[in-house]
Amino acid sequence: MILLTRLSGTAFVLNADLIERLDSTPDTIVTLVDDKKYVVMEPMDEIVSRVCAWRSRIIAGSTQPDDARPAAGRSHLSAVSADSTPEGVH
């Protein structure tokens, strides 16, 4: 999720996975996959930076070992290695 600002000055949070494209005409227009459009104050390069940072945080959080994460943020999923497979399971 990224924080953006409408031209009216009100802030909103947008799920960056739904962005289809960005246009600069000179206002920045965010078009979503459902063709909904938002005109925002942030320049296009700033939005791209925010999306990249957001995705980087997701990837970084998913690659930490479970014991390095706070208990509240632990996932019920974890990586297993081939040598930890129980007998008879393939």
Description of the structure:
InterPro entries: SwrD-like. This is Flagellar protein FlbD. Residues 63-90 are annotated as: Disordered. With 90 residues, the chain is an alpha+beta fold. It contains 1 helix and 5 strands, in the order βββββα. It has a domain at 2-63. The strands form 2 sheets. It has a 3-stranded antiparallel sheet, with no helix packed on it. Strands 1-2 form a two-stranded antiparallel sheet. The model has no long low-confidence stretch (mean pLDDT 84).
What is the compact description of this entry?
By secondary structure, the protein is an alpha+beta fold. It contains one helix and five strands; from the N terminus they run βββββα. The radius of gyration is 19 Å and the shape is elongated.
Key attributes of the depicted protein:
90 residues, alpha+beta, three-stranded antiparallel sheet
Helix and strand arrangement:
Layout: E1 2-5, E2 11-14, E3 19-24, E4 28-32, E5 37-40, H1 44-62
Antiparallel strand pairs: 1-2, 3-4, 4-5
Structural class: alpha+beta
Helix content: 10-25%
Mean pLDDT: 84
* Count of distinct strands: 5
Instruction: Report, as a whole number of angstroms, the end-to-end distance.
Output: 38 Å
Oligomer: single chain
Report low-confidence residues grouped into runs of 5 or more: none
